[in-house]
Amino acid sequence: MTHMPEARRWPGSEWLKDHPRLLERVYDVTKALLQRTYPVMKRLSPRLTERLLLWSEELAKGYLFNCQMCGQCILHSTGMTCPMNCPKNLRNGPCGGVRADGHCEVIPEMPCVWVQAWRRSQHMARYRDEILLIQPPVNRALEHTSAWVNMLEGIDTQTPSGWDNG
Ligand code: SF4
């Protein structure tokens, strides 16, 4: 089996993720703020706006969630726990391999991302039940793009051409 490193855990980030109610408030405020300012920012400089959002995501979400920049953020639906830290990159979990101690079958020293996601989601006020939603497969074409921009532009919910049989 290929060796896979455990997800990075920066100082304080686990504590914050264990307080998802606080994080969901930050998410709501940021989203509301961006929905108001993004159209203006985009008109002034679309390129700079995208860069700024991309950079802030790399920095803030990288630190807090070990964000892998999938470009299609579903953190608020997964207990503020990044699903892309699952070694299998599952968008719906857990898999059948969770150990009896709640750890990952691929990286035994790592707590299962989905066990953490479920536990944390149950402490959320607004998004508690979103963990029950079935998530579509991640669109790899959006990797390393800004998830905020993709959300504001409605790109993150579009089905890529070729995926639809209809
Ligand atoms: S779901 Fe995607 S955008 Fe959100 S934190 Fe994880 S890798 Fe980053």
What does this structure look like?
The protein is an all-alpha fold and 166 residues long. The protein has five helices and no strands. It has helices spanning 13-17, 20-44, 46-65, 113-121, 147-152. The mean pLDDT is 95. α2 packs antiparallel against α3. 24% of the residues are buried. It starts with 12 loop residues before the first helix and ends in a 14-residue tail after the last helix. The protein has one domain (13-152). Residues 61, 65, 67-70, 73-75, 82-84, 147 line the site of iron/sulfur cluster. Iron/sulfur cluster is lined by residues 61, 65, 67-70, 73-75, 82-84, 147.
Output the keywords:
166 residues; mainly alpha; 5 helices; binds iron/sulfur cluster
Query: How large, in whole angstroms, is the Cα Rg?
Result: 16 Å
The domain tally reads: 1
Note the gap between the termini: 39 Å
Structural class: mainly alpha
Total number of β-strand segments?
A: 0
Give the quaternary arrangement of the chains: single chain
Give start-end ranges of low-pLDDT stretches: none
Secondary structure tally, helices: 5
| Helix-residue proportion | 25-40%
Strand content: under 5%
SSE pattern, N- to C-terminal: HHHHH
Taking the sheet with the most strands, its summary is: none
